[in-house]
Queue: 2 jobs
Job 1
Amino acid sequence: MPSNRFDQAKPFLTLAIVVVGWLIVPVAVKSLLRASFFELQAPISVSASHVRDLQEFWSLRAHSKQELIEAGRDLARINASYDLAVQQNTGLRTEIERLENLLRVPLQPAHRLEHARVVRRDFSAWWQRCTIRKGRNYGITVGAPVVFSGGVVGRITAVHAYTSTVELISSPGVRLAAVVEGDERPMSFQGGLNPTFGPARGIIEFVPIDIFASATSTKRLVTSGLGGVFPAGLTLGRVVKLEPSTDGLFKTGEVELDPRLSELTEVTVLVPVAEE
């Protein structure tokens, strides 16, 4: 009987020994082991990403000539509209620079655009992150903001040799200053506790009491530019619910994030450019 009890308790004793051993290991050794694990795992994820790109290429080759002609026409129309938008954007930037020089507005931090493919997405109760296919080899830095056509994706939390980890704005670990479109008063945005297969949502706090929003009358939430990490005016989501906070001085509410966050295939990293 004692032998049977010892055999039953052996897995728990082994687990306890492993946990205690890991706790007494120096922090430098833990960091080295963690970095080595990611570096060894990265080639597998990157190779799988390249294989998916190759599969997509051959699936496109299977389309008929008529479908390719129609796609080319649609692409030409989109390119024409983008050309016009680029010209308008150039004119607006010139006017903004002229006004900033007249008003002596401090220069905003400059960024270099680095486009990257998404290698893997990790959505669970513990993680809200994704891995991109660029790292130190392209000068990616920790803390750099990540965006896409719909607004903010998140920020870089870890950089490796050939990959980087992006913590999404749906993660509770992301907190930044935001403003409601058309209002200059800053408030606090934070990612929420999102279910694995549910829609991504965030939390907004310290909202002025004279701002109202509901599911039928939403408000666009954008970055404020405070802190110097995220440029001002980038979309965070839509405020769909507001209610008075416990102190009665402000409001708190929910922010509906872009559903495309869970299916991104390519993002843009805003790499800070060091001033000369």
Note: The chain has a mean pLDDT of 82.
Job 2
Amino acid sequence: MRKIILSVLAVIVVAAIIVTGSVISRGGGASSGSINVYNWGEYIDQSVLDDFEEQTGIKVNYTTYASNEEMYSKIVSGAASYDVIIPSEYMLSKMIDEGLIAELDFDNIPNYQYIGEEYRGLSFDPEEKYSVPYTWGTVVIVYNTKYVDEEDVADESLELLWNEKYAGKILMFDNPRDAFALALTRGGYSMNTTDPAQWNEAAEMLMEQKPLVQAYVMDQVFDKMISEEAYIAPYYAGDAITMMDENENLAAYVPVEGANQFVDAMCVLSSSQHKKEAEQFINFMCETDIAVRNAEEVCYAIPHTAAFEELDEETREDTMVYPPAEVLEKCEVFVNLPPETMLLQSDLWIRLKTTYY
């Protein structure tokens, strides 16, 4: 039924273009021009971008990044110009502090009303000025049931990532924040610790693990796990579900020791020359039917209350997507660490990546 409705809307929109030479957006007002959207890989339904362009007349130049750090480096280097970005909470906090994020005009984002109260006023944007939550989720351990012995995953522990039995078949995050978070959690520490001794201990754990690691990856994890080139990898829950859909031998769990719980949010760069159009895009992504379609495509948990109610029951009750409270209680949200801790993290990461065995 929805496909029929969209087809009718498309005809109406085309007619509007012919008659008036402009398109009236859902948010109201004639629009034109283009915006540059910078997002994580495998993190949007391409068809909603097509619909946005068709319904507003605004062209979307869409590019992707593999980590918050990659995105941040490209923006601060001035290598490219973007309007909308979708960082995770700790990076958003850092960019707000550095004046890189614009305050939003929520008059242009009326669909913000659908964002659940529990996802508003979070630590990275306590006054709700700069961002609109997009998705949330947790880090999980993905493994191949054909090659990983059942007794090695029975306790659903982080220790699987350090199991010598699977040397050469283990993947690891290719970004320091996620990699160190796993090691810190394994050591019984907060992933937001500022204690240098705990960071150094975590670095030793990662150094101990390195001979077992086939590769440090981000989006490459999809091909390697689906093709069974690798057997074990930590990654984000929504992407894990995508991999599991492609290979029935894959399974996943949230580590019993705990994991990162992340919130990714849509925001506009302060350097944007198309702020109104960017806000129009954010509002469009918060349309209930659009949020539903996007959630069904990317397989991540959504903060959109009306869209959540329209998801099928199986999705709403999927504990990989929406973990129960007792699992989330063990999870921790990243915060923006002080500069001296970030410098230590950077130094330890460089040492790890440049040490050869």
Note: The first helix runs from residue 2 to 20.
